[in-house]
């Protein structure tokens, strides 16, 4: 049994944050300079150690430092020292938060891509304060010059763009020569990146302040906090211990190639707000009403929401086999006879198109259904319409991100990783 706490609102606090960015000589090259931007002013650093000392000074106690794609920036600034200076929270290879506490006060580093999973260029356009053009000296490392010249000679523009991010306009500029010295325009470019990010974070804080929640590190965590703040009818939900069996039916997304090539005109289809619409319209198993049986009948699959461990036969001639299956840690959608845990709605759909359930071994089913998500989705949707009407693109985008992120938060695996160093006692 576990408990999901609802109706959680926290007292508003003054969120202190700052942004930083570094430029390198070419992508992945050595440190050129860095910029720190905050309510204390703008600082430019040509020395990494001075930048580190500034960012981790007591004057930034309890601040959150944001960078867009923080992995890159901190690897340039801190190098291997990152593991000595910070406690890290990492999920699926993403840095969620780094915490500094060497001198008795906390300073946090977060990746803004966990809030806005898009380019800084697109963020700038959304807020009406666009980033500046990236100087070529920060794209092209001197060691890449010979390879780039070969690609230009062979007119391999696709590789030039995919590998080095070079457009035809960049190539024309490159052929005029690159001056590897830092200019005022270079510094203004980096400052603008920090300003764009700072403004975006300000908008995000303005948005969540409507719900009296504190700023979380990820878009999913903020979505969950807003959702919890809206649940006024109950203080908590007591989730049955059988809920872990639902995870066994959670296989992940499907990406497959059915036809290798075609000389015909193709149509592209996309769902409009797929996750939000499903969360708004559908009924879900009430987590407080789960029951388990190892003597199930087909009636439980046909008439109740839940999951079952079954043996199922998929017709050999079915072009789109409907049920997932893990084979050697690979997700496939096979024909033939398979065993696995599946959601009842998936099994009903599979049976509709010709699959046959040969045996039902175990079932967890809900005696009641509910929809806790409707109010949240309706609220985000209404706000998005409001901001669109006001032509407030960044706030409308935040609504969209929050609508799409709550679903994933409920499907998240809670795996904790502690990052540190091992002493070498030779």
Explain what the structure shows.
The chain is of the alpha+beta class and 426 residues long. It is 35% helix and 22% strand. It has 15 helices and 17 strands. It has helices at residues 48-55, 70-77, 82-85, 120-127, 145-153, 157-164, 168-174, 184-208, 219-230, 244-247, 274-281, 298-303, 344-352, 374-389, 393-410; strands spanning 2-5, 17-24, 31-38, 41-45, 64-67, 86-91, 94-100, 107-111, 236-239, 284-285, 290-293, 306-314, 325-327, 330-332, 336-343, 356-366, 369-370. α11 (274-281) packs across α14 (374-389). It is globular, with a radius of gyration of 26 Å.
Number of helices: 15
Strand order within the widest beta sheet: 4-3-2-5-8-7-6
- Arithmetic mean of pLDDT: 90
* Biggest sheet overview: 7 strands, mixed
Report the C-alpha radius of gyration, rounded: 26 Å
Distance between the termini: 47 Å
Features:
426 residues, seven-stranded mixed beta sheet
Task: Write the topology of this structure.
Blueprint: E1 2-5, E2 17-24, E3 31-38, E4 41-45, H1 48-55, E5 64-67, H2 70-77, H3 82-85, E6 86-91, E7 94-100, E8 107-111, H4 120-127, H5 145-153, H6 157-164, H7 168-174, H8 184-208, H9 219-230, E9 236-239, H10 244-247, H11 274-281, E10 284-285, E11 290-293, H12 298-303, E12 306-314, E13 325-327, E14 330-332, E15 336-343, H13 344-352, E16 356-366, E17 369-370, H14 374-389, H15 393-410
Parallel strand pairs: 2-5, 5-8
Antiparallel strand pairs: 1-9, 2-3, 3-4, 6-7, 7-8, 10-17, 11-16, 12-15, 12-16, 13-14
Helix pairs in contact: 4-8, 9-15, 11-14, 14-15
């Amino acid at each position: 049994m576990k408990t999901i706490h609802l109706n959680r609102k926290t007292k508003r606090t003054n969120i202190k944050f700052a942004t930083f960015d570094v430029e390198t000589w070419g992508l992945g090259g050595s440190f050129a300079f860095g910029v720190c931007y905050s309510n204390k002013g703008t600082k430019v650093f040509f020395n990494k150690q001075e930048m580190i000392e500034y960012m981790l000074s007591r004057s930034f106690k309890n601040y959150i430092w944001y960078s867009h794609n923080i992995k890159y920036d901190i690897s340039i600034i801190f190098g291997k020292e990152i593991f000595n200076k910070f406690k890290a929270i990492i999920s699926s290879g993403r840095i969620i938060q780094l915490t500094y506490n060497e001198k008795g006060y906390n300073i946090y580093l977060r990746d803004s891509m966990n809030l806005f999973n898009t380019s800084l260029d697109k963020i700038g356009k959304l807020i009406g304060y666009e980033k500046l053009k990236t100087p070529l000296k920060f794209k092209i490392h001197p060691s890449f010059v010979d390879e780039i010249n070969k690609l230009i000679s062979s007119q391999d523009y696709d590789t030039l763009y995919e590998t080095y991010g070079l457009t035809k306009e960049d190539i024309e500029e490159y052929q005029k020569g690159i001056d590897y010295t830092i200019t005022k325009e270079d510094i203004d470019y980096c400052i603008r990146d920090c300003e764009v990010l700072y403004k975006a974070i300000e908008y995000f804080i303005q948005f969540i302040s409507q719900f009296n929640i504190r700023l979380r590190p990820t878009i999913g965590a903020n979505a969950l906090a807003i959702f919890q703040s809206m649940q006024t009818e109950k203080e908590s939900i007591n989730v049955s211990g059988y809920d872990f069996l639902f995870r066994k039916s959670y296989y992940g997304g499907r990406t497959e190639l059915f036809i290798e090539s075609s000389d015909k005109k193709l149509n592209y289809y996309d769902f409009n707000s797929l996750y939000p619409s499903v969360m708004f319209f559908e009924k879900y198993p009430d987590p407080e009403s789960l029951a388990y049986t190892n003597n199930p009948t087909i009636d439980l699959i046909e008439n109740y929401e839940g999951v079952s461990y079954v043996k199922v036969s998929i017709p050999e001639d079915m072009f789109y086999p409907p049920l997932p299956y893990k084979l050697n840690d690979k997700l496939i959608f096979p024909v033939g006879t398979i065993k696995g845990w599946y959601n009842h709605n998936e099994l009903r759909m599979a049976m509709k198109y010709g699959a046959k359930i040969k045996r039902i071994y175990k079932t967890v089913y809900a005696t009641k259904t509910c929809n806790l998500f409707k109010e949240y989705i309706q609220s985000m949707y209404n706000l998005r319409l409001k901001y669109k009407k006001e032509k407030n693109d960044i706030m409308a985008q935040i609504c969209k991100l929050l609508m799409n992120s709550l679903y994933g938060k409920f499907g998240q695996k809670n795996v904790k990783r502690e990052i540190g160093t091992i002493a070498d006692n030779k």
